[in-house]
# Entry
Amino acid sequence: MTTDVNVRVPVREQDAAKRAHNFEEVCYGYNEEEAVCESTRCLNCQNAQCVKGCPVAIDIPAFIAQVKAQNFEQAYQIISKSSSLPAVCGRVCPQETQCEGKCIRGFKGDPVSIGKLERFVADWARDHGIKPEGASSKNGKKVAVIGSGPAGLTCAGDLARLGYEVTIFEALHEPGGVLVYGIPEFRLPKEDVVLKEIENVKSLGVKIETNVVIGKTVSIDELMQDEGFDAVFIGSGAGLPKFMNIPGEQAGGVFSANEYLTRSNLMKAFKEDADTPIYRGKKVAVVGGGNVAMDAARTALRLGAEVHIVYRRSEEELPARVEEVHHAKQEGIIFDLLTNPVEILADESGWVSGMKCIRMELGEPDESGRRRPVEVPGSEFVMDVDAVIMSLGTSPNPLISSTTEGLDVNKWKCIIADEENGATTKEGVYAGGDAVTGAATVILAMGAGKAAARGIDEYLSNK
Amino acid sequence: MYKILKKRVLNETICLMDVEAPRCAAHCQPGQFVIVRTDEGAERIPLTVCDYDRDAGVVTIVFQVVGAGTLRMMNMEEGEYFHDFVGPLGQPSELTLETAEALKSKKILFVAGGLGTAPVYPQVKYLHELGVDADVIVGAKTKDILIMEDEMKAVAGNLYITTDDGSYGRSGMVTKVIEDLYAEGKKYDLCVAIGPMIMMKFVCKLTKTLDLPTIVSMNPIMVDGTGMCGACRLIVGDEVKFACVDGPEFDGFLVDFDQAMKRQNLYKTEEGRKYLLEQEKETHHGGCGQCN
# Structure
């Protein structure tokens, strides 16, 4: 094991050339020996900065101290006081800008590998059948949670621990939200990780009812008036995929990243025997540079395609996590940067035959602070592709806001909610996650679910 | 799990089922749809609502075997359970937003083609219960595949049945019947046409010349059906709309049918291949036009 305190214990990964052809998890995580070794690098700071960087404020030094002492079960119980989904967070959180970004070790060397340690503890607990500790007694109050993604599961878990009777309503046939339909298997295994985390939330007493589309199958007012729910949390997620509105976008072989990923992840189309089909392209362009674009690109690669990321700015502006970009490159994804599609070309049958693009260069910074990409005149060229995946973000789904009286939305049609406690403009109704902020990260949604659980508890305790 | 309470085979490929789904039955309206999954791992199949009984908590669906998933549905029996049944989805028919008085002042014509008879039925029934008698044209290729004649007769004002081959009722396409009715001096204020896209396209082409506003119901490929994936997008006017949340009903004069049909045909092959494989297993040796 490493002896240099400034260097983190490296994590084992599946070989890039091999993993480009399978859906098994890329990162293997730490084993016991590696985890304990890495934990000794933690300085156990009095005024721990890492905790401030964590949206759900896990007591990081305390759990790492337990890893050091090899009390892995205690380490797990410390984490699960703050997080309902540690095995998920350990895998998909952008630790480099959160807990690890604040770690004192980072000044001189590598920050402590907090994410990998969290993952190790959560996986160890799962392998040893350890469950989170629930409430000792129920308080008799009922809360409805809409959506079983990261925000909903966190809010439900926290409220159940406080003694509330919680029911989650999920629109799809399987709980998990973006953890199931969005993030691919090779980054977040469904059976071993997501399903087990959901079982843990259920073990706290949370009920999950699938196939219920709130706003259609039943309304929020009916839940509160007829079904006796004292409060409601809306964690319904991001919504409708955006397209570029360029000519040819209706051609066959043009998918939103949501469609492509839903087919592969939720409907298991990556397996040969699945009922739901997915197009296995020969040469695929993924338009966009976020984490979702990386997920779509790496999925298309594993389904056998040559894959190009087409992004209008430069590498520096890529919104995706550095680790995702790094993994994508290792696996052989080609990055066509400073390039923007202007038209999608189709063959006689109406299927994509190419994508006309234009080269871009960076001009003055725009309102986002990033340098604005401007077209280079006369630089059009045609990329020869047979599928295009649009990964341009989403706009809010109006299903709930349009059917709930008194629930206000902002000019982007996102639900208005107080950042501190999740309160919306409707009494007893709270909201958080992508439905409020627009598409963001798993951990920010969890932070919002947590804040709303506190807000709901305060509201119902004083009622 | 959602119990199949009743199964009635309407013809060789079309089947009606009553399904126990109380939450959905309590809220569904004419024009909306549901999504069904037969079992774990199956695809999500969108189907328009054919009827509902709020008190009994029952939703009636009618489906046609077009792929592996619907074939499996056809093979299920009374007393068995669907793994998933979610709805109602989409917007209710605009007719449900109007008052009985407003509806009574209108002459409404429904045009149903093939399986489209099923989603037309609840709309005609809805009007009938408000005391509005609408005229209905039902078209089928031939007599044997005509569905729901008795049910429709019970709720329609005048019912005009036509078969392409003249084996029953009038002879010819539904568009011919519309022309004949106008020639006979009939006139309508609104047309609702539901059936194969090609039928809806030609109905709209005709009704435009008759100045007869026409609503159509689109059923493109869908995955989630809740506005998440965008697979069901189509061009209406100059805008991209999602059939699952903005529709399924649209102003027929604004729908780009050619584009929509192209999209549908492209995907049909994938589904068709699955269907053939399931039916014929390894005995299928090509030549069907569905396989490579």
About this structure: Chain A is about 35% helix and 15% strand. The longest helix of chain A spans residues 442-461. Chain A has a mean pLDDT of 93.
